[in-house]
Design goal:
Layout lengths: L1 H20 L3 E3 L8 E4 L1 H13 L3 E5 L2 E5 L2 E2 L4 E5 L3 E5 L10 E5 L2 E5 L4 E4 L2 E7 L2 E3 L3 H12 L8 H9 L10 H4 L9 E4 L2 E6 L2 E3 L12 E6 L2 E3 L15 E6 L2 E3 L5 E3 L4 H7 L3 E7 L2 E2 L4 E5 L7 E12 L3 E6 L7 E23 L17 E22 L6 E20 L1 E13 L5 E4 L2 E9 L8 E6 L2 E6 L7 E8 L4 E6 L6 E7 L8 E2 L1
Parallel strand pairs: 1-3, 2-4, 3-6, 4-7, 5-10, 6-11, 7-12, 10-13, 11-14, 12-15, 14-16, 15-17, 16-18, 17-19, 18-21, 19-22, 20-23, 21-24, 22-24, 23-25, 24-26, 25-26, 26-27, 27-28, 28-29, 28-30, 29-31, 30-32, 31-33, 32-34, 33-35, 34-36, 35-37
Antiparallel strand pairs: 8-9
Length: 524
């Protein structure tokens, strides 16, 4: 009986051991890898392949230092880095060959494999409390070498390979300088035409180029991660492009370029694929160093739709909310909601919507090349020490349309400028500018300025300045502080300005009329 019991117990224990051995977790140290910083790309990739053949699994990295080249993820694969694990990517460009199909700044091409690369797969995850280091300096230095060269320099084997594998690539003339480098750094993570992606908890640093960059993907969740890239070229944080159903939350980002950017392809190449980025939520994130906090564009030729941005802090970025494009891009940016944002120490514009990004082309007929911004609503924003509160600039053939700003308080150098836009509303907006007017309205129509003003009005400077604008209602304003000039209007095309239901007891000059203003332009 005792022997029988022992046999039963041994069988039970063997079963448990077998279950744990086949539970889908592959410890990389048991799969030929090492945690001593010696390159083990083959062992890691073999573990991914092994798990994939078994239907999927988790590649587990215990504490220690690992070195690898590019990794190709498969369906149902999780990369899990334990606390104390540091996964470093090789500085040898050969470790990112052969070239693969990828997207670089909105153009599909053959180039270096992204550090983590996935194509046409599903259910991929990177998680844990470890750190992943892209060691991007080697890539940055190569870009600097090419860009700063005086005169012609011999092409590297990588540049020759790029030219050979990308014959017939189509691009606009303004992008020639970039294409002529024939050298395109890989994204840290690029999933291409994948679905069901989760990136959680880990820290990414020193990306060669864009950090988290899903392309043509569906159902993407990025949560609780940290991205630290130093001052470096184009090292954006999170860039979903031509993706649907994207969720970004609880992230801490400090980078060399934009913190979070939403894109959908560049010019004709983007329109060819015609894949919009839509259904995106961004919430509970902090953005520090970076060119922009949350940016939409400039590559938006496939369209960007149904985006919400909420509960975020931008402290020290060049800009806060930035939506940018230009003639030739095409695409529609619409149905955008921004709410509950705090900004501090913004070096340029806190809010900017601009259709003159990176070039000033002549007026064109309205075609598929014409970019459109419409239905964009921004509310509950506090900004301190900003250079410029807001800037809106459309193009004459397609003014920016249907924009609202509500419950906004800004302290900074300059106020809001609205130029070439229609159907714009300001409700409960206070801008304390130290230079110029708090609100400048230029070449625009159909506006409402409701309960707006400045707590620090300037002597001899109007709070609201209107030039060649029409159909404007200015109402429900009650300046609390002594104000020299509240409204100044000028321009022969200014008309239908209605100043109603205001209390101007503290205002010396309620309306200052310019010499070119039609006498019937303003109704008080």
């Amino acid at each position: 009986m005792k022997i029988k019991n022992i046999i039963i117990i041994l069988c039970f224990l063997t079963g448990i051991t077998s279950a744990f051995a086949n539970d889908g977790w592959l410890n990389i140290l048991n799969e030929g890898g090492n945690n001593k910083g010696i390159k083990c790309t083959e062992a890691i990739q073999n573990a991914i392949e092994k798990a994939s053949k078994n239907g999927g699994g988790t590649i587990f990295f215990p504490a220690g230092e690992y070195l690898t080249g590019a990794l190709k993820l498969k369906s149902n694969i999780t990369i899990h880095l334990d606390s104390g694990a540091l996964l470093k990517f090789s500085e040898n460009f050969d470790d990112y060959l052969p070239y693969v199909e990828m997207r670089y700044e909105g153009i599909v091409m053959q180039s270096f494999s992204p550090l983590f690369y996935a194509k046409d797969v599903e259910n991929i995850t990177i998680t844990g409390r470890g750190v992943i280091d892209g060691q991007g300096k080697a890539w940055w230095n190569e870009v600097y070498r090419i860009e700063t060269a005086k005169g012609l320099i011999p092409e590297t084997k990588y540049q020759k390979m790029w030219t050979e594998q990308n014959k017939g690539i189509v691009y606009e003339p303004y992008y020639k300088r970039t294409i002529d480098k024939h050298f395109f750094r890989p994204s840290f993570f690029q999933a291409y035409n994948c679905k069901n992606i989760l990136i959680e908890g880990v820290t990414f640093k020193n990306s060669p180029f864009w950090t988290i960059n899903p392309e043509f993907c569906d159902n993407v969740t990025v949560t609780g991660i940290t991205i630290n890239n130093p001052h470096s070229p184009n090292t954006d944080g999170i860039n979903p492009s031509s993706c649907t159903n994207v969720h970004i939350s609880n992230c801490h980002i400090s980078v060399g370029d934009d913190c979070i950017t939403i894109k959908s392809g560049r010019d004709a190449d983007g329109r060819k694929y015609g894949k919009a980025t839509e259904n995106v939520t961004i919430t509970n994130c902090t953005m520090l160093s970076g060119h922009g906090g949350v940016v939409i564009g400039s590559e938006m030729s496939g369209g960007i739709k149904k985006i919400t941005i909420s509960n975020c802090v931008f402290d020290g970025t060049d800009r806060g909310i930035r939506i940018k494009s230009a003639r030739g891009r095409g695409g529609v940016v619409e149905d955008i909601r921004v709410d509950n944002i705090v900004m501090k120490n913004i070096k340029e514009e806190a809010i900017i919507l601009d259709l003159f990004y990176d070039k000033d082309n002549p007026v064109e007929p309205v075609t598929e090349r014409t970019p459109i911004f419409r239905n964009i609503h921004i509310s509950d924003v506090t900004g301190g020490n900003v250079n410029k509160a807001g800037f809106v600039r459309g193009i004459v053939e397609m003014p920016i349309q249907n924009i609202t700003f509500s419950n906004i308080n800004m302290d900074g150098k300059e106020g809001f400028t609205v130029n070439t836009a229609t159907d714009v509303e300001f409700h409960d907006v206070k801008v304390n500018a130290t230079v110029g007017s708090s609100f400048k309205i230029i070449d625009s129509k159909n506006l409402i300025l409701d309960n707006v003003g400045s707590s620090t009005p300037l002597k001899g400077v109007p709070v609201i300045k209107i030039d060649n604008a029409s159909n404007i209602m200015i109402n429900n304003n009650f300046p609390f502080n002594a104000t020299d000039i509240f409204i100044e209007a000028n321009g022969k095309d200014t008309k239908n300005i209605f100043v109603k239901n205001n209390v101007f007891n503290n205002v010396t000059t309620a309306v200052k009329k310019g010499k070119d203003l039609d006498k019937k332009a303003i109704t008080e």
